[in-house]
Amino acid sequence: WFLDCEAAAKRYLREKPDGAVRPMAQIVATMARAKAGQFEDALTNYRDLMQGLTKEEQEEFAANFADSLAESATRAGEFKAAREVYEILLSRFSNPELRTKVRDDLARLDMVGKPAPTVIAKDLEGETFRLAELKGKYVLIDFWATWCAPCVAETPALKKLHDTYGTRGFEIVGVSLDETTAPLRDFVKARKIPWPQIHNLTCGSDLQATFGVSTIPATFLVGPDGTVERLELRGDSLEEFLKAKLP
What's the pTM value of the predicted model, to 2 decimals? Predict the structure, then answer.
């Protein structure tokens, strides 16, 4: 959609530089470049947009858009671009809650290329799960919850990828942020989910804090050598990665 509307957005910005919906046109132009994989151009557009946001009441709008752009860059493996998106946001607004959230986002980006945190926890069946025992495989750590609509919507695609690549060196580990285990157990049973599930509140370890997860869905892909390789891979992006790594 962004790419389809890019020409109209650019025309609006050219012909009506002070138009009422200039910010929307800037968003379209920025995300179109991101969808095309042109993150330098996307950042140029993003900087222009952020320069025009100077009021406190514009903070939520800016933060939401920054998250969208940073996630797009992160999913594409453009971690430097994602970091710059957050750093620009920090330079514009001083809300303590926002700054704490953005610092968590930056810390998560810093995990890429480093050994994954140690994970030793009880799974849903009460068995001890150790991430280190999956060394040699690509492991997707998926933070989710049964009340999270985007998480639930992703389940069929994850099952398909698990069926296809589970015997080739790919594993999924779900970390549920549900308040209780009951809805998690019901969901896993009804959907016949085959991969391990950890309920964060009763597993004996706060994995949400360990991985710095503030919003879901959130994913961390750990490589065969135990390092974090990618963040926020899902859908087509995850499938393309697995096709390249596990043909």
Answer: 0.86
Token pair listed for 103:
């610092």
| CA distances in angstroms from 108 to 94, 114, 215, 238, listed in the order given | 20, 11, 12, 18
Q: Which residues contact 101 (CB under 8 A, 6 or more apart)?
A: 63, 214
Instruction: Give the H or E element holding residue 129.
Output: strand 128-130
Q: Are strands 197-199 and 228-231 parallel, antiparallel or unpaired?
A: unpaired
- How many angstroms from the chain centroid is the CA of residue 168? 24
In contact, 220 and 232? CB cutoff 8 Å = no
Segment 160-215, tens digit of pLDDT: 999 999 999 999 999 999 999 999 999 999 999 999 999 999 999 999 999 999 88
CA distance 68 to 2: 13
